[in-house]
Amino acid sequence: MYIYDQYDQKLVDERVEQYRDQTKRYLDGKISEEEFLPLRLQNGLYVQRLAPMLRVAVPYGLMSSTQVRKMAEISRKFDKGYVHFTTRQNIQLNWPRLAEVPDILAELASVQMHAIQTSGNCIRNTTTDQFAGVAADEIEDPRPWCEIIRQWSTIHPEFAFLPRKFKIAVCGSEEDRAAFLLHDIGIQLVKNEAGETGFHVHVGGGLGRTPVIASSIKPFLPKQHLLTYLDAVLRVYNRYGNRNNKYKARIKILVKAWTPAVFAERVEVEWAQILARDVDGAAQLTASEIERVKTFFPLPDYQTVDETAMNAALQAQANDSLAFSRWLERNVRDQKQAGYSSVTLSLKPAGVAPGDVTDRQLESIANLADQFSNGELRTTHNQNIVIADVIKSQLFEFWQLAKADGLATPTIGTINDMICCPGGDYCSLANAKSIPVAEAIQRRFEDLDYVYDLGDLELNISGCMNACGHHHIGHIGILGVDKKGQEWYQIQLGGSANKNAALAKVLGPSLSRDDVVDGIEKLLDVYVENRLEGEAFLATYQRIGTDKFKERVYAKDA
Amino acid sequence: MQKMLSHGAVAENNWTVLQTPGETLPQGNILVPLKYWLEHGAELDQQAGLVGVWLESDEEVETLVDDLAQLPVVALNFPKFVDGRGFSSARLLRDRYDYQGEIRAIGNVIQDQLFMLQRCGFSQFCLADDVDLEAAVKSLTDFSDGYQTGADQAQPLFKRLR
Ligand code: HEM
Ligand code: SF4
């Protein structure tokens, strides 16, 4: 992974000191509440229902075991001994004390981590595919590009006070695992006819109150122009984005108002002028800088293995243990390198808020990454953790250790692997609780054979229309709504975050907390009754439409 | 006399910002609104003091391009400190239109923005009366460098140092 040099380190250290001074001035009453707000947000600290929360950046989801151990230590020393993995691949501390945040940031800086721009109206952490570098369908490893964007966006002098938050995702593969079309800028790595890497740029995607799928504005941006072009997009947005109404302030609203074609044209004009003034291409990326960053993402030294023999041995182990075979089926993925697998550690055992892990579990995760991989791991936007490059002959041992620490719930990609926001238990904006709904669903569908029979199914829950739980892009989405002070849940169907991204449609009137799990079960019954051989939930829904689902869920009990 | 920061030091601010200039203009150096300048700019020759223009955050610097050479100061107003349009306006003045005069931040800017504002090309800052100007001067160097190009730096860090 990328290792800081003296310049990277100095910047992060200076940021800690700047924020230490800001916190001191705030506590001394020299900075008003209003002025301190964006300062603390841009250092990851936001104040919620019960306590402040600190969001720590995990750049494009990549962490070292050293960093994970540091998070465990911080959670013990400054928090309640657990952390939360978010849908934007970051980590959140739920109970830090405001006065101690500078010390936490200093601890983070000691392991090359920070919380810079994890909140606030600025360019946020860039996200990507959790299988970057090992995915079989990859065009190119997106992580070097993410790092280049990370550096460009960090303390960018011009874009720290945008109309609204700004999120960039990079997708390097055929299939999309980064939901890049639901970001303010979605960058897709592509090759032109000459085989050169470039970027297909999309803008104006996003969830929230007004979910929008991003529009293409530049089919092929040559790689040396990445940063100048991003400057142009951000400048147009910074100048012309709506600043009067925060619900209309995201770039998606501007793109819609102008139309994508006009927006693209405005960017093109701005970009041409930037280039015209850029003497000798000074601001362009150089081949040597791209190479320098790429060297930080080498492929491990893979052994040449007898994969057939390995697979046979694995099969034998699977035959002996149903639990292991289930885990293999759901939580383990082949890599493009023969004999190696990527393992997903589940952070979704029933009874725990999705994405929450304890300090002890963090240490176990770090140990697994050291023992079975190159000491690195990846956080996912589904709130799980991936350890890549595990040799197949060690999977059984891996599984036993992961299972002992509660990290091997074999439900990845199933209904029980839901995405879920903090909801009414923690969040002051919530209309309804979301964690108890997630738990009730996991408890209802405890029978793993049934869960596997249902197959791939994304269920996403948000406690309000801000959509932190991605309900618009769940095959089944659940949205908390407030009806006369009571918690109700709207069901949405048919969302998807892959290359054919689709937004879910509302099924009908919302259901009470008591009815919501029954409602989900009825949806699943309709699916099971109507599916064709091997057809997943989403495909059945797309084929038969909403009517049958609707009839069943809203049928009056006889 | 009011104070401001100018080129990294505390300085006297002997300028008057006119919100809505009337029939008679005050003595001394004045900053007039963009609209007024566009209508009456030519008539301001007789003014004894210096004349500069100030822009609201939603006004485009492009309007002023032909006049820049005769303006010693262009001030950019921040109606709220979180309104970041002025950052882009300053960069355009410096990077695109080669403006050599003073770019002054007026309105609501805070100490914690100074480093970035300076990188975008601002040379002068009018801060609220209760701000500790010595501390503000220090904030101009909160960071020793930046990754990106800026009005102060045509080359990104990777080209200069790596
Ligand atoms: C508990 C405190 C939280 C609050 C108050 C909060 C607030 C918000 C708000 C207001 C938005 C909508 C912003 C907009 O559309 O412009 C939003 C979006 C979002 N939040 Fe949160 N959030 C919280 C926690 C989280 C957590 C823990 C996660 C990750 C699990 C998360 C992930 C997201 C995502 C992915 C979006 C959608 C971004 C988009 O619109 O494209 N949030 N949040
Ligand atoms: S979706 Fe709503 S309830 Fe859930 S975390 Fe976001 S703001 Fe809070």
Describe the protein.
The complex is a heterodimer of chains A (558) and B (162). Chain A contains 18 helices and 21 strands. Chain A has 558 residues and is α+β, with helices and mostly antiparallel strands. Chain A folds into four domains: 6-109, Sulfite Reductase Hemoprotein, domain 2 (Alpha-Beta Complex); 134-294, Sulfite Reductase Hemoprotein, domain 1 (2-Layer Sandwich); 307-404, Sulfite Reductase Hemoprotein, domain 2; 419-554, Sulfite Reductase Hemoprotein, domain 1. In chain A, the strands form four sheets. In chain A, strands 16, 17, 18, 19, 20 and 21 form a six-stranded mixed β-sheet that branches. In chain A, helix 3 runs antiparallel to helix 12 (359-372). Chain A is globular and about 65 Å long. Chain A starts with 5 loop residues before the first helix and ends with a helix. Chain B has 162 residues and is α/β, with parallel strands linked by helices. Chain B has one domain (2-161): TIM Barrel (Alpha-Beta Barrel). Helices cover 23% and strands 23% of the residues of chain B. Chain B has five helices and eight strands. The mean pLDDT of chain B is 95. The chains are: A alpha+beta (558), B alpha/beta (162). Chain A binds chain B through residues 5, 7, 10-11, 14-15, 17-18, 22, 30-31, 35, 38-39, 121, 151-152, 154-162, 227, 235, 238-239, 243, 273-274, 277-279, 282-283, 286, 289, 292, and chain B through 60, 81-85, 87-89, 91, 95-96, 110, 112-113, 115-117, 119-120, 132, 142-150, 154-159, 161-162. The structure holds protoporphyrin IX containing FE (HEM) and iron/sulfur cluster. Protoporphyrin IX containing FE is lined by residues 48, 86-88, 92, 164-165, 167, 182, 206-208, 250, 421-422, 426-427, 429, 466-468 of chain A.
